[in-house]
Specification:
Helices cover 28% and strands 16% of the residues. It starts with 6 loop residues before the first helix and ends with a helix. The chain has 10 helices and 14 strands.
């Protein structure tokens, strides 16, 4: 026999039934659900602008986007809904629209990157345009870039590869600025290009590990026994504060072997406590420090932060089926294998980036240039650069021995990196 409901239970049941029928409560609940979905999506899209790297460490790109307009964004490409990944595509020869500027037109290119000036006999490397599958990159608009940067600071932080991207950006913009309205100055680790009319600075800050290290001297830093100080990002970070667009990179300098020396304490300590960590763990420490610094110092409503992935080198021709003992020297064609992944690019490092960024809520946009750059064994400076030390007879007899297969001729590949940066900045 069922126990009869008490009067209070009946009243409660009646109230609940009435509440369920109330249009006001229904509207309130619907609004709460809508807000939860909306801001839940925002958390994923704003703070997680990096998709985690896939399990096979193949490069990926951002897919989900913020419903709310991001700083500096002027529109959307409309390609995300179509499944377009701007970092996945192919190189197309384009003599009509490339290069985006001439080497001789840009006085800011370092002599390590002026390949034509230093005797490169052909210019094929300048005529390639990146074509994503299923969509087109917006054309780089120097006027839009400068007008948007008016009264602001843009800074590239990292190693010489990021300096190359910085110089590429300057070369893409400087033609719009009268000669007497622009300047380039270097102050220790900081190089500043100023466009006075726009009150704009585009800057490069030398910090190859992002953290403090014994390789922080912008001129004298060729140290084989590299040491990085734990928890020291503020040593450099104090110079990044107030920047409106920040572009980080760090990879090459970590590649000293399977372990990295980490300093606990200070470089000024008489007795230094140094431990060795697997390179992946040391790199993870730096990534977490970077994300923590961004979280504490960057205003997501006003600023944008980017991270450029590892830049590949082409030091072993056997990677692409070439002759043993050769490298990028004399290479003038692209790698056509779409699955190519050189031995110089550590998949384990890409996994670290994926793991750290996947677990973070810090708003950083990932510029995944690794795979698309891997196809470009033709684009390195090779032997066509200023040699800071006289070549030995042995080197002159064997150009492969001194070919630079790390840095890139300019104009060239790194202009594409900035086209991708432009795309993600204005059409995220």
């Amino acid at each position: 026999m069922k126990t009869p409901l008490s009067s209070s239970s009946s009243s409660s049941s009646y109230i609940i039934r009435k509440a369920r029928l109330s249009p006001y409560l229904f509207t309130l609940l619907a609004f709460i659900v809508f807000v939860a979905i909306l801001y839940g999506e925002d958390v994923i899209c704003i703070l997680g602008q990096l998709d985690p790297l896939s399990s096979d460490t193949r490069p990926i790109s951002t897919t989900k986007k913020n419903r709310e307009k991001l700083p500096f964004a002027v529109g959307k490409t409309g390609t995300e809904e179509e499944g377009c990944d701007v970092f996945s595509g192919r190189w197309v020869r384009d003599v009509s629209n490339r290069p985006l500027y001439e080497e001789s037109e840009c006085p800011y290119i370092q002599p390590q990157l002026t390949c034509q000036e230093h005797g490169r006999p052909e210019r094929e490397y300048q005529y390639w345009r990146w074509q994503p599958h299923g969509c087109d990159l917006p054309s780089f608009n120097a006027t839009l870039m400068l007008e948007t940067l008016r009264g602001k600071r843009m800074m590239f932080v990292g190693d010489s590869l990021n300096r190359g991207q910085f110089v590429s950006m300057v070369c893409l913009l400087h033609r719009l600025i009268p000669e007497h309205e622009k300047s380039m100055e270097t102050f220790d680790s900081l190089t500043v290009f100023t466009a006075k009319e726009y009150n704009v600075t585009i800057e490069f800050y030398w910090a190859p590990f992002l953290l403090e290290s014994n390789s922080d001297n912008a001129v004298i830093h060729r140290i084989s026994d590299r040491i990085v100080r734990k928890g020291s990002i503020n040593k450099h970070g104090k110079y990044w504060k107030g920047v409106d667009i920040l572009v980080f990179n760090t990879y090459l300098w970590w590649m000293t072997g399977i372990k990295m020396k980490i300093l606990k304490g200070s470089f000024d300590d008489e007795e230094k406590e140094i431990v060795e960590l697997p390179t992946e763990d040391a790199y993870r420490m730096a990534m977490k420090s970077m994300l923590r610094w961004v979280k504490l110092n960057m205003d997501r409503k006003k600023t944008r932060v980017f991270f450029t992935s590892m830049s590949p080198s082409h030091g072993k021709s056997i990677d692409w089926g070439g002759e043993p003992g050769q490298n990028c020297y004399n290479e003038t064609t692209l790698i056509e294998d779409t699955n190519y992944w050189g031995s110089d690019c550590r998949r384990s490092i890409m996994r670290v980036i994926g793991e750290v960024f996947r677990g973070s809520k810090v708003p950083i946009t990932f510029l995944n240039v690794t795979q698309l750059s891997s196809y470009r064994k033709d684009a390195h400076t090779s032997i066509y650069k200023k040699q800071w030390n006289p070549l030995t007879p042995e080197q002159e007899a064997n150009p492969v021995s001194y070919a630079d297969c790390v840095h890139w001729c300019m104009p060239g590949l790194q202009d594409t990196w900035n086209e991708l940066l432009f795309t993600k900045l204005f059409y995220p």
